[in-house]
Amino acid sequence: MSTPTKVPERAGTTAKQPLRSSVGFTVTLVLLVGTALFGRRLFAGWFVDDGVRTWATMFVGVTIQAMPFLVLGVVLSAALTAFVPAWFFAKALPKHPALAVPVASAAGVVLPGCECASVPVSAALMNRGVTPAAAIAFLLSAPAINPVVLASTAVAFPGQPKVVIARAVTSLGVSMILGWLWLLTGKGGSWLKVPKNRHAHDGSRFETFRSAMLHDFLHAGGFLVIGAATAATLNVVVPRSWLDHVAGNLLVSVVVLGLLAVLLAICSEADAFVAASLTQFSLTARLAFMVVGPIVDVKLIALQTGTFGPKFAARFAPATFVVAVLASLLVGWWLL
What we know:
- It contains 15 helices and no strands.
- The protein is mainly α.
- Helix 8 crosses helix 13 and helix 9 packs parallel to helix 12.
- The longest helix is centred in the N-terminal third of the chain and has 36 residues.
- The termini are far apart.
- The N terminus is likely disordered.
């Protein structure tokens, strides 16, 4: 007598995951919209202190301003994952590695993608024969200089187009520098673990799109809330004299905001609004915040460790941070 099959049980377990994602997405969206519409009435009795009112105003303002760009970025990133095959990028890049790096970096200008999506996309590029240097350049540029990010930066810094230009130039430069450094240092073959080929389209493309959109929204939305709360707290709780002291030293302020970007791990479509709220700091320091965040933060380090191995992440994250800080200082001195 043959043993009973367990396929139905697996199918049922798999079916529960999209359902949970849908429920989580709906609950999160309802809570955000409800807070925006009725939060002032519901919690009016709580906000009696001037400091608390300032915190609440800044927190809600940053969150509501950033949310449309976050949703747009998530939708476009999911569409890229579901409908654009990875082999398209491999065919579009030059064969010579040194030339493929700037082309891959420039591709980030027109191809939207969040930080989380860029890691598996770059791994897929490597699996399809793209040189790792070009894949790394795309990994760094796509979440930093895509149209949604640049548009959100323009809205966050109205009347200051030089901030948008500085962000684009710095992020593009950092992605190319890291790609070329990979080539110059022997390509790091001994400590890069290229993951095995994974099929992103196990189900229908629409299902892939829906799952990616729900996952990215829930993931990035949580970090946005944390970032908005932290920015509001910094402006209310931290003594003004301490902030003025740190902000008064250009090098220290750039490093501090760079480290803050690493810890907050805010989605690149929303980080400009958090940076704009840190008015005590110079534009150069806030540029460092916007350049570092999309290319090296705690969640990206974890993703890169799991995808490419701990040896890669232990070397790549510090190198990326140093190059991003130095590039921000240089471009800030030049443009800002």
